[in-house]
Amino acid sequence: MTLEQYGWNEDWNQLWNRNGDRTEGTMPARIVGDFGSRYRVVTEEGEGWGELSGKLRHSLETFGDYPAIGDWTEVRKSEAGPYILQRVLERRSQISRKAAGSQPREQIVAANVDTLFLVSALNDDYNIRRMERYLIMAWNSGASPVIVLTKADLCDDPESRLREMELAAPGVPVLAVSAVKDRGRAKLMPYIGEGRTATLTGSSGCGKSTLVNWLSGEEVQLTGAVREDDSRGRHTTTRRELFVLPDGGIIIDTPGMRELQLWEDEGGLDLAFADIAQLSAGCRFADCRHEREEGCAVREAVESGELAEKRLRSYHKTQRELQFQATKESRLKRKGAAAAAAGTKGSGSRARKYDWRAEMDE
């Protein structure tokens, strides 16, 4: 076993060697398992448990941004046995969503990912509006998105679904596969080459763990049946884990998402709705909202049938959600800054909650 098998390369080596803050006697390690309060890490010595140093824990309690699966870290071996995480190396990419709860807080799903597989099953799990949300998360992450439509053997016409998804995801590869029938594996291989890291994300029961087993050639993850009435599954994957594939690629499996609440938008909205962004260049007004303005090229495309009305509605709904999220986060930051200046702890805001699910087209 070598660190190179887990994605260590010359770029990471240069980052490691030019960092003047490195402590003597430490070594690089990648987080390969996230168990909440503890981590599994792999070093040049092998795999073991990792715990946060007191200094790092104190820093994180103040600023957040806890280590995530896929992170490269600086560790030292303790006399008691576990590796002590001293710090996290600068990330090349990070997949984030809003954490559960009323307060705006970021949850990092995975870090240092090259390819993000957005998984949806070709049964009742199939949902274009939901996939638009996943695409925004993907484009904001810095990873390259690839849509994987699983369980193609359960669909009478997978090709039409594939074409439909391609229209909703301009420029994004869309692949239809069936692990049960062993179809489409070769389509995935270019995205999980040696030393490259891919992550799977999607709703519960969409077939992520089955994909991991299929690509690994063995049963490394538990899988479970889905309910026949709604094609939903239980959380058979309850933690985030990283696996090295026989062909040299690296894949991270994550628990299924019952819902995806978006975090900040760093251009992901326009990339996920690239067709609307392109059309908007022809609008008469630069600040056109594509609602009732004169000379709106986007509305004209809807009226001519070039753009689906549903897609524009989804764009507006997602835009409102992201604006609401940004406003709420800004308000909380100002409140926290004022509380810090006064030497007190800020209290939680009881601002109304934006219910994006009420607006999502099924």
Describe the structure.
- With 362 residues, the chain is of the alpha/beta class.
- The chain folds into 3 domains: 3-88, OB fold (Dihydrolipoamide Acetyltransferase, E2P) (Beta Barrel), CATH 2.40.50; 94-253, Rossmann fold (3-Layer(aba) Sandwich), CATH 3.40.50.300; 268-359, Orthogonal Bundle (Ribonucleotide Reductase Protein R1, domain 1), CATH 1.10.40.50.
- It has 10 helices and 13 strands.
- The chain has helices at 10-17, 54-63, 128-141, 158-168, 185-188, 208-216, 268-272, 274-280, 297-304, 309-342, and strands at residues 27-34, 39-43, 46-52, 72-77, 83-88, 94-98, 106-111, 115-121, 144-150, 174-176, 197-202, 240-244, 250-253.
- A hairpin with a 5-residue loop joins strand 4 and strand 5 (83-88).
- Pfam families: RsgA_GTPase (PF03193).
- Residues 105-260 form the CP-type G domain.
- GO terms for molecular function: GTP binding; GTPase activity; metal ion binding; rRNA binding.
- Its EC number is 3.6.1.-.
